[in-house]
Recover the amino acids of this structure.
């Protein structure tokens, strides 16, 4: 089948700001890039999507039914080309991993890696994560939400595009089971400070940091291509973890 690229409607609602109303065009946390799909990625969409893909729409996400087993659910938002997702799913076969990404070539890349590593515990959605959380994910249905190296939107006039906003953090917190964890990482210090202040302001979340700010990098988080780019530019990395109370 052809990639279920996010349509203009589903891609149009992302990081809702407090000022959004139905009359205003909603603000997106992403730009759908024109990036070309390789032949292998096209094959992945044709042959692997039927088993690995979760179709867009409004159907509530019943994770136990989707995976055919009841197991902890880890949801990764904006997985890029899936390096972290594949590493985690391979290291934790008893956990169900769901990836959310709007970039179809990245989804194709992830599916190819799942095939190469014979992973049975991964499913993927090619849609705006904010909409999926708002419309399809049940409250208290997810054990971990991962948001690694989200687009930092460094220019001040673009800050409203950052996915981490109070409404988004509250949404993630609601989807977590009590005791569930929201993990973030960024290589952009002003965004790290923004994440800290925003998640710190959510009444449903408690910072896991002993020092009240950042946590040590989880051993489980591999270095991604995006992170390597930050390292080359001399950026630091800030990890955050917040637990649903
Ligand atoms: C800077 S990249 C980081 C990719 C990956 N997490 C890594 O560490 O290499 C951010 C990714 O988030 C995706 N993204 C941004 N907003 C999104 C949204 N609302 N829903 C799903 N994916 C989104 C982008 O398409 C992009 O691939």
């Amino acid at each position: 089948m052809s990639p279920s690229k996010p349509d203009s409607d589903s891609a149009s609602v992302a990081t809702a700001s407090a000022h959004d109303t139905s009359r205003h065009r909603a603000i997106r946390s992403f730009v759908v890039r024109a990036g070309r799909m390789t032949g292998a990625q096209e094959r992945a969409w044709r042959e692997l999507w039927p088993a690995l893909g979760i179709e867009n729409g409004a159907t509530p996400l019943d994770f136990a039914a989707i995976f055919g087993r009841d197991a902890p659910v880890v949801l990764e938002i904006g997985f890029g080309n899936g390096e972290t997702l594949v590493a985690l799913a391979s290291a934790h076969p008893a956990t169900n991993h769901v990836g959310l990404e709007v970039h179809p070539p990245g989804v194709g890349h992830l599916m190819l890696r799942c095939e190469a590593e014979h992973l049975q515990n991964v499913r993927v959605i090619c849609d705006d994560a904010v909409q999926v959380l708002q419309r399809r994910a049940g409250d208290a249905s997810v054990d971990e939400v991962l948001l690694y190296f989200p687009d930092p939107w460094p220019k001040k006039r673009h800050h409203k595009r950052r996915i981490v906003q109070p409404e988004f953090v509250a949404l993630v917190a609601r989807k977590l089971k009590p005791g569930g964890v929201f993990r973030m990482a960024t290589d952009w210090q002003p965004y790290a400070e923004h994440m800290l202040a925003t998640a710190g302001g959510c009444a449903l979340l408690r910072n896991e940091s002993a020092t009240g700010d950042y946590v040590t990098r989880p051993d489980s988080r591999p270095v991604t291509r995006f992170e390597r780019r930050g390292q080359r530019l001399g950026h630091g990395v800030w990890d955050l973890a917040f637990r649903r109370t």
About this structure: The CA atoms of residues 102 and 127 lie 5 Å apart. The beta strands are 73-77, 96-100, 122-125, 142-148, 176-186, 205-207, 238-244.
